[in-house]
Design brief:
Number of helices: 12
Number of domains: 2
CATH superfamily of the largest domain: FAD/NAD(P)-binding domain
Bound molecules: flavin-adenine dinucleotide
Largest sheet: 7 strands, mixed
Shape: globular
Oligomer: single chain
CATH class of the largest domain: Alpha Beta
Structural class: alpha+beta
CATH topology of the largest domain: FAD/NAD(P)-binding domain
Number of strands: 22
Distance between the termini: 60 Å
Radius of gyration: 22 Å
Strand content: 15-25%
Helix content: 25-40%
């Protein structure tokens, strides 16, 4: 029976009758979200012997990395290990990635490789399907209500990995959440990513080399390894200022940043759109951001053509399928990781993996306040980021007050500053594989993820080649 519009006490209401739902699937481990975290979780759970299903609203795997076109793993290749390393290696073998200080990759190759990898492990896929609600058995999540063109139905599982990027399962199940910055809940800006084609990269590089004062002094922001296809350029400060004096560009633009630059193809990813004061879980905000993203894109294209040597014939080659959301909800887990833990090299007996990430501690890292890359932003313009290797405790994957769910990806329990590290793709894969292992072991035991024997989780992770503690990685 469809919903009906009615009038009750003079008010217009819409009534939906209770109904029973068909059961679309029932498996050991359901992974919500097929981003990099969900991909790693599904591969890990399947490798531990679980029957696994990924539920994904999009048409591909990879999430922000593919549909969102964020084609850079922000970890040096030498520091990658475990399932993330396997994913990198498959991409490299397929000619779709270029290892180095950051690993830039071809998002179209990633989509194909991801489908191949899950098929090889027998992971089930339900694409074009959105999770609309959770099904509870007391404090325990035991199913998802999903919607797609076919029906509204139920997907049941013994365990769930929430890799939705927005903690959709945990939030709907009533777990406590953090949102944005600890003090005021403001979030990092959104960015619509797009690629420019038609570039004469040699001429762009000539300008960069001739004007070092016009670019960030951080060699990590300025990667100019042409042979290794590791090119990232952050600056063009004076050109941006000149364009702004002419009324081109937008207030929040203080630099022009291109990365994943491909000299032979004449293409580059533009990561310069910045939209502030928007919440990725608010549909009106996301709508506004998509429209504003396109407006800024047109201005950036005009800027590139008119001001940047080598970009005179630039055109928009393609644009991400959706706006890039850096930050929304994170769970309050059994432990909250802090930047002090990361910078101080905290040791955690329950570590499920390490990540290596270059940062300026206490720098803005896409501050919700804006001014990123402005002359006053010393951290971005002048300081040199350091490589931090840090441990991630298992407790950060466990949402409080509910059972049946393990978190993976950018929604784990970390405060806003620590999220500047853990939200990056390699870290999302590290937590993804651990969530997949924990979910599989709990499903097999018929128990809760919280009650698992830690040594069993760590042994399974080591079996994948995962390094669990600092000091096991180069550069730590
Ligand atoms: C502009 C931008 C630049 C970035 N730069 C870098 C960088 O240089 N290097 C780096 O390493 N990282 C970078 N990041 C961060 C990184 O890309 C993301 O944090 C990371 O990819 C998140 O992965 P995830 O798997 O946790 O979530 P996501 O990639 O968001 O995946 C979540 C998946 O779940 C699906 N989903 C969500 N809700 C539902 C639902 N209700 N039902 C069904 N499906 C659902 C989504 O469609 C998506 O596929 C950047 C991010 C952005 C936005």
């Amino acid at each position: 029976m469809p919903a009906r519009i009615e009038t009750q006490d003079g008010q217009v209401i819409v009534r939906e009758d209770p109904r029973s739902l068909p059961i679309a699937a029932s498996v050991d481990v359901v992974v919500l979200g097929g981003g990099v975290a969900g991909l790693a979780a599904a591969l890990a759970a399947a490798e531990c012997g679980s029957a696994v299903l990924i539920v994904e609203r999009g048409n591909c795997l990879g999430g922000t990395a593919t549909a969102g076109m964020m084609t850079l793993f922000y970890t040096p290749y030498r520091c990658a290990h475990g399932i993330p390393r396997r994913i990198f290696d498959r991409l490299i073998m397929a000619g779709g990635a270029f290892p180095g200080e950051v690993i830039s990759f071809d998002h179209e190759v990633f989509k194909s490789v991801a489908f191949e990898m899950v098929a090889e492990r027998g992971v089930g896929l339900l694409l074009h399907t959105i999770c609309a609600d959770v099904i509870m058995d007391g404090p325990r999540v035991c199913g998802l209500v999903v919607e797609n063109k076919g029906a509204r139905s139920a997907v049941l599982g013994r365990m769930f990995v929430d890799a939705s990027g927005d903690a959709d399962i945990a939030a709907r199940a009533g777990a406590p959440m953090m949102l944005g910055r600890d003090t005021d809940r403001k979030m990092r800006p959104m960015s619509l990513l797009f690629r420019l084609g038609g570039l004469d990269v040699d001429r762009v590089l000539d300008y960069v080399r001739a004007h070092p004062e016009d670019f960030s002094r951080d060699p990590n922001q300025m990667l100019l390894d042409v042979e290794g296809r590791n090119i990232r350029i952050f600056g063009f400060f004076s050109l941006v200022e000149a364009a702004k004096r002419e009324g081109l560009l937008f207030d929040d633009c203080h630099y022009f940043r291109i990365e994943a630059v491909m000299p032979d193809r004449g293409t580059a990813l533009v990561n310069t759109v910045r939209i502030y004061d928007v919440d990725g879980t608010n549909p009106e905000h996301v709508t506004r951001a998509e429209i504003e993203g396109r407006r800024q894109q047109r201005k950036l294209l005009e800027f590139a053509r008119r001001f940047v040597p080598g970009c005179e014939r630039a055109y928009v080659l393609d644009t991400a399928s959706h706006i890039g959301v850096r930050e929304t909800r994170r769970i309050e887990g059994d432990y909250v990781l802090t930047e002090e833990d990361i910078v101080g090299g905290a040791h955690f007996a329950d570590s499920i993996g390490v990540d290596s990430n270059r940062q300026n501690p206490h720098g803005p890292r896409h501050s919700p306040d804006g001014m990123e890359g402005a002359a006053s932003d010393i951290e971005t313009r002048q300081l040199v980021a350091r490589l931090f290797t840090y441990e991630i405790p298992y407790r950060c994957l466990l949402p409080r007050n509910i059972e049946g769910v393990v978190m993976a990806g950018r929604t784990i329990s970390a405060n806003h500053a620590a999220d500047g590290y853990t939200r990056n793709q390699p870290a999302c894969m590290v937590t993804g594989q651990a969530a997949g292992v924990a979910a599989a072991l709990a499903a097999r035991a018929g128990g809760e993820a919280r009650a698992l024997n830690l040594q069993e989780i760590q042994a399974a992770l080591r079996g994948f080649g995962t390094r669990l503690h600092r000091g096991e990685l180069p550069g730590s």
